[in-house]
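Notes to self after the Tuesday call (sharing in case useful).
The group wants a holo model before anyone commits to mutagenesis around the pocket. I volunteered. Ligand is fe (ii) ion. Logging inputs and output together so the record is complete.
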Amino acid sequence: MSAPAAPRTPHGWPLWEVFVRARRGLSHQHVGSLHAPDGEMALRNARDVYTRRGEGVSLWVVPSSAILASSPDEQDPFFDPALDKAYRHPTFYEVPEGVEHL
Amino acid sequence: MQVDDTPTQERLQARFDRMVADEVRIEPRDWMPEGYRRTLIRQIAQHAHSEIIGMQPEGNWITRAPSLRRKAILMAKVQDEAGHGLYLYSAAETLGVDREELLDLLHSGKQKYSSIFNYPTLTWADMGAIGWLVDGAAIMNQVPLCRCSYGPYGRAMVRICKEESFHQRQGFEILHTLSHGTPAQKAMAQDAVDRFWWPSLMMFGPPDSASTHSERSMAWGIKRFSNDELRQRFVDMTVPQAEALGLTLPDPDLRWDEESGHYAFGEIDWSELDRVIRGDGPCNAQRIERRRTAHEEGAWVRESAAAYARKHAATSSAAGETAA
Ligand SMILES: [Fe+2]
Ligand SMILES: [Fe+2]
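Result:
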């Protein structure tokens, strides 16, 4: 894991990541980011910028600096454990001819 | 300890080249060549600046829209353009620049915006011509950018393109209403189209023979089609629409060319584009002056919001300490 970058804006506002739930039953999805002085303003701005056409029923804003990310350079070893376990997929198994609903 | 990083550098470059060739998107924290980063920053910033400067020619008519319906539509469109600016500044920021920095470069004239916005909007019909032709040309440019190799730029373009189609339609509707109105209204529509036609064709940039960065941008998967290709597509799409409007396009050489299957059109006055880019367009000084003033006059809002956030943070952390 690598530490999140410190806010890049010495004279500006912190950056927030915006997540929108399109409708009930779906999870929130990342849609973009914006600058705002505080969380309340970030929510208001996110409403104006990302939901002008009824794109959502719920909004989350998260300070970008609070996000920890895996590094793209570490990509291969970090995700290695999943690569050699084909038996986690149903297609790994042989089903005898004629057997249904399995 | 001294480490020779040449092989790493080569490995990274090879990986980047492979990803672009395989149409795998490049994301902000991936290694990328400096030239790629610089090209993207310049292009995305210029694009963002165009969106927000583009609010001015249309903002000019909001208070004089001929009906409440038209006024509400125009306000929604201008607000969309502000949103487009924000999506694009956000995309540029993922490349390690700061929005404040980019605004400074715009205000000091070190970065450009699309020269189309240096033309004045003289009549209400210009709102129609801009929506139909200027947003139409922008869409033609922007749709292929949705597949740009740089992820955040492509994603911003997807959002923008979804919103743009209403912009073009409302412009077409304005012109259609005018061209089916009184002779004076039709003449006003024709005049607007006459003034915006050639500058709209210039929006696709210089001809391929004179376009300096095109080839590299193509190789990087930033650009997908050449300036001339996109311009031709725009002409082919627009001519039948002009016929449906009952308006003409101000080009005596415009004709269907059976052989190529495209519309042939007249010579573009590239010296005009050069002049406008250099700063001698009809409204260059006015647009930048207005932008600077708006930014300066908005300073107290930004400062108040920051002061409120500081005060609020202090109060809630004090409350938190008491509770603990
Ligand atoms: Fe736009
Ligand atoms: Fe637009």
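Two things stood out.
Strands of chain B lie at 255-257, 262-264.
The pocket of fe (ii) ion (ligand 1) is lined by residues B 51, 81, 84, 160, 164 (CB under 6 Å).
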